[in-house]
Amino acid sequence: MHFEEQVPHPPGTNDFQFHRKQFFAERVGWFLMALYLAWALVGGFGEGWISQTEARNDGLSCAIDYGRFGRRDAPFTLRIRLRLDAPREELALELNRAFMDHVRIERTIPAYQTMAGDDDSVTLSFAVTPQKTEHSFIIEYKPLHVGTLHVAVQPDGAGEVAFNQFIYP
Asked: Do residues 128 and 135 make contact, with C-beta atoms less than 8 angstroms apart?
């Protein structure tokens, strides 16, 4: 004797249009997750080769290494390399006010001697080796806000270097 039993299927299990849409939605989701992971691996959310870059002024006398992307309250570093025509005993770096209002400076290497500010900028003065024409400075800071951070650095005797950083939450 042979018994056949009708087993009811849950609603929608034989709906092929639904299954095609579900299959397509799954593949789109997988693609978006893979894209997200690839963006993270190349440095789209912070450290990585796509994030680290360099900005120079027109005269190529000032170069700044910086990260394009970062997170709020995470440490950032500006590495400034400056080549002057003549040696000096003191050098000033002028930073735009919008940058200074949206970050907390943790330290500078070498340490600055004085800081002076006005409505548009803040000037950091450094004592440098008088015999040298090439100098390097490091400014370590933490962004305080999310969004685009505009940075403009104007060294004494060199053209302005300006760039943007994007700060994630």
From this structure: yes
